[in-house]
Amino acid sequence: MMIQRAILIGICAAMLTACATTEQAGGFGKAEPSGFLQDYSMLHPAANETEASLVYFTPDKTKFRSYTKILLEPVQVWRGEKSSAKNIDMEDANHLSQFLWSRVDEELRKDYTMVQQPGPGVLRVRIGITEAGKGIPVLDNVTAMHPGSLIVSKGKKALSGTESLVGKSSIEMEATDSQTGELLGAGVDRRGGGKYAWKSLNRWEDVEQAFTYWAKKIRWRACTMRGDAVCEKPKD
Question: Would you indicate the residue range of the signal peptide (predicted)?
């Protein structure tokens, strides 16, 4: 077992961020509404971990088949009173919003035409970052290799939803008809970095990995809502 772990750590070190992963926050640390969405009344707790913490989808899923274009609004770092992102400085906020927007745009344009104006067959997508906390990668790497520290980290995750010293983030998203404003889907979710050695020293690494995961998850969910035969689900 120790030999296998040493080999895995060596591979991760060689590939740097290739083994990077994030985890959905659970327990008492699940995402909470921040005020970014226009309406939370129809959201409900997800039935399983393939969804966000809180979700809503229109009962008539066939509606998604009529949309061939997407208007992806600029991602906001939400600074509402209930948002944990309200004190992020402007430089970090610009980086995070542009990073998430570019990842979502990259994924959705594989299946849709991306447009700048509302119109027939256009789905409007709004995304808000409501939490973004940097990791402490040096200490994270050290404690990931110490059994006692790992036990403490697991205890923290049970209480707060994320491991110790890792980066964490929450987002809220809604998809509406660009002309009528009808709500077709919405979600609230929170993720934190996985606990493993040899992480990148980029303090936003865990958050960026979460953003990349969410972008792929959005594409996968849109695919399933359209009823496509093959949909690529991101790995947790």
Answer: 1-20
